Structure formats: C-alpha cells, structure tokens
Amino acid sequence: MARWDGTGTADPEREIRAADDEARWFRALLDVGFFLLLGSSLTRFLMRHTGEGIAPWVVTLAAALAALYVAGPALSGDRTRRHLWLGACAAVWIALVFLAPSFAWCSIPLFYLGLRHLRPPAAAGFIGLLTVVSVSAQLRLAGRFEFDILLGPPAVAAICVAVFVRMDQQTRRQRELITDLVRTRRELAATERREGTLAERQRLSMEIHDSLAQGLSSQQMLLQAADRTWRSDPDTAHRHVRAATAIAEHNLTEARRFVHDLAPADLAGGGGLDEALRTLARRESTDGLAVRCHVEGVPARRLPDRVQSALLRIAQGALANVREHADARTAALTLTYLDDRVVLDVADDGRGFDPAAARDGDGVRGHGLPAIRTRTRQLGGTLTVESAPGEGTVLSAAVPLEPAALPLDGA
C-alpha cells in the first residue's frame, strides 16, 4: 500500500524508491544466504573429506558455481542467455550434489533465481528438478529411506515458492497503485491548472467590467457631451473634457492595481468602504444621472479587506448597469450595517427589466449581473434583484459578517 505523509498526500517518487530499496535488500540477503550456504557446505565437506580424490573437483565446482552466481547479472541479458545461465548453474550444482550431498542446501537460493528469471511453467520444472535432486542426495547421504527426508525438500520448495509469489504480487500491486497515483495526480494538477486559468479569466473579466469598462463608458459620454457643446458652450465642454481626463487617470490606477490583484483605488486612501462609496457616487454623478450615497448604522467591527473590495466592485458593476441599460435619472447607494451582516442596496428609477429573463440567460443585462452574483456568492452572501419593466430596479447584496473580522480601531 502507498505511504502517506503528514499532509495527506502520497509521494510517488518516494514510494518507487522504497520499493526499489526493498527489492535490493531482498536480493542482497539472498546473495548473502547463498554464499553462506555454499561456504558452509564446502567447509563441512573439506573437514570430513580432505584427503579424498574428489576434493579438488568439489572445490573447483564450488568456485565455478560461485563465479556463475556472481556473473549472473552480466550473463542473463536476453531470454536465451538467461536460460543458458540458469542451466549452467543447475548443471554445476547437480554435479556438486552428486559429489557432496551437503550442497543440496544451496538449492534454496537457486529456487528464487528460477522464479525470478523464468516463466511459471519453466520455473515449476526448474524447481521440481532441483527438489528431486535434493531428495535423492539427502537419501543417499542418510544411507536409508527416511520419510522426513522425502517430505522436507518439497516442503522447503513450497514455502520458497509461496513467499516469492506473495512478495511478487505485493510488489506488482504496489507499482500499479503508484502508477495510478501518479496518473491521478497529473490529471488533478491539469484540472487545477484549468480551474485556475478559468478563475483568473473570470476575475479579470469582472474587474474589467466593473472598473475599466465603466470608466470608458463614462469617458465616452463626457466626450460626446463635450463635442455637442464645443461651439455653443466652450466652458462646459472644457469641464467635460477635464472630467473625462480625471476618469482616465483613475482607470489607469485601477488597471495597475487589479493586474497586481490589489484593492480598488478608491479604498487605497484609507477612508474605508463608506468614503469609497461616496467617492464613487460623486464620480458617477454626471449630466443626466444623479447618484446619492447613504450609510446607515455603525459597523461593530472593521470589514475585512476582501469584503470591502467586493462590495465596492458590486456597486461599480451595478451603477454600470444603471448607466448602460436603465436610462435612469437618479440612483442611490445605500450601505446598511446590521449586527450580523452588511447590506448594499443599489436603486434606480429607470425602465426596469424582468429578473427572471436575466436569470434565464437571455442577455438582458450582459455580464454585470452574473459578475455581481459571483462576487456575492464568493463572500457567502445573497443577492436579491427586484425589478419590473417601467418600475426601476433595486439590487440588494447581503454579506454575513465573519466572526473573525477585526474590531474597529479604538473600539
């Protein structure tokens, strides 16, 4: 199974390294066991048969088997070479067992070599051959038939096979889990990147609509008014041009700030949301539209910066809708502080519209209402739109006050 770190996520690279380390440790232990068995068998033989003529042959064959075992990684490249190498190891071992039956114990590491390098049918035949030779050697060494000798080597072979198969299954399952985890993490990372891209696009579109597009619309209206009065009333035309220039400067500041994801420019002065809404109302009060601002209640705590920024953007977006769609003469911004929430109302006396049609997506109010609804939802608040054709519009955004909001300075 995959290991998990303290953050609740798995590290696939660490899991792969751990699996490789376990495999290397197992092979190292197997190698140590083989040479211990080979050395102990050779020592036992030399202690009991030093003067016999077969001793040089036994030593030579033991050295050959050790050399073949060590050279295994280099000699077992493709399947044919691997089969030839295993056949040479088995042949040398069988000759050793024929001369000295005590070398039968070296069959245990050879079992694992067969299981690792041969397919199941070939591995079964390889292990069966080694088991038969081991039983024959032990019976010949004992000099008589013994039931435990007949059952012992097959039992050892069965245990070795069971252990190896179980470990191999666990290793395969672990690698499959790691592969699935890596694939899932890649898919998740790609999804997060897509969601991040969409969220950033949505943020930029809302910022552009609520700030830059609104300012450009005001500039257009002012410059058109200046063009109409340029000859008849130059002073009024100059006043319109100066107002358009001021709006352009403000738009430039807004563009620089939202590119860096900073607070709106009207909040940068430190006057808070109340003063920012009053400034917005003054700036939006142009020929043909009068905007008033009212603040009711006293805030029990300072609003978080993100709430102030979002409510100001909501007011900007709502006034942009009033100017572009409502054909209104007056509009009112009302900010109300309650015990558990703050409410921003934007009302106008324009021509109104059908809110149900806007929700159905027929484009009555373009991008404005969806952006306002998104901002309100991000704050955990609710948005209410009351309107009807010919009866004006009242937009109300209610945002709950967070318990962790900071208290007012000096409160």
Automatic annotation (TrEMBL):
<dbReference type="InterPro" id="IPR017205">
    <property type="entry name" value="Sig_transdc_His_kinase_ChrS"/>
</dbReference>
<dbReference type="GO" id="GO:0016301">
    <property type="term" value="F:kinase activity"/>
</dbReference>
<protein>
    <recommendedName>
        <fullName>Oxygen sensor histidine kinase NreB</fullName>
        <ecNumber>2.7.13.3</ecNumber>
    </recommendedName>
</protein>
<feature type="domain" description="Histidine kinase">
    <location>
        <begin position="311"/>
        <end position="403"/>
    </location>
</feature>
<keyword id="KW-0418">Kinase</keyword>
<dbReference type="InterPro" id="IPR036890">
    <property type="entry name" value="HATPase_C_sf"/>
</dbReference>
<keyword id="KW-0004">4Fe-4S</keyword>
<feature type="transmembrane region" description="Helical">
    <location>
        <begin position="122"/>
        <end position="141"/>
    </location>
</feature>
<dbReference type="InterPro" id="IPR003594">
    <property type="entry name" value="HATPase_dom"/>
</dbReference>
<keyword id="KW-0408">Iron</keyword>
<feature type="transmembrane region" description="Helical">
    <location>
        <begin position="84"/>
        <end position="115"/>
    </location>
</feature>
<feature type="transmembrane region" description="Helical">
    <location>
        <begin position="25"/>
        <end position="47"/>
    </location>
</feature>
<dbReference type="InterPro" id="IPR005467">
    <property type="entry name" value="His_kinase_dom"/>
</dbReference>
<dbReference type="InterPro" id="IPR050482">
    <property type="entry name" value="Sensor_HK_TwoCompSys"/>
</dbReference>
<keyword id="KW-0411">Iron-sulfur</keyword>
<dbReference type="InterPro" id="IPR011712">
    <property type="entry name" value="Sig_transdc_His_kin_sub3_dim/P"/>
</dbReference>
<feature type="transmembrane region" description="Helical">
    <location>
        <begin position="54"/>
        <end position="72"/>
    </location>
</feature>
<keyword id="KW-0472">Membrane</keyword>
<keyword id="KW-0963">Cytoplasm</keyword>
<keyword id="KW-0812">Transmembrane</keyword>
<dbReference type="InterPro" id="IPR004358">
    <property type="entry name" value="Sig_transdc_His_kin-like_C"/>
</dbReference>
<dbReference type="Pfam" id="PF07730">
    <property type="entry name" value="HisKA_3"/>
</dbReference>
<feature type="transmembrane region" description="Helical">
    <location>
        <begin position="147"/>
        <end position="165"/>
    </location>
</feature>
<dbReference type="Pfam" id="PF02518">
    <property type="entry name" value="HATPase_c"/>
</dbReference>
<keyword id="KW-0902">Two-component regulatory system</keyword>
<keyword id="KW-0479">Metal-binding</keyword>
<comment type="function">
    <text>Member of the two-component regulatory system NreB/NreC involved in the control of dissimilatory nitrate/nitrite reduction in response to oxygen. NreB functions as a direct oxygen sensor histidine kinase which is autophosphorylated, in the absence of oxygen, probably at the conserved histidine residue, and transfers its phosphate group probably to a conserved aspartate residue of NreC. NreB/NreC activates the expression of the nitrate (narGHJI) and nitrite (nir) reductase operons, as well as the putative nitrate transporter gene narT.</text>
</comment>
<keyword id="KW-1133">Transmembrane helix</keyword>
<keyword id="KW-0808">Transferase</keyword>
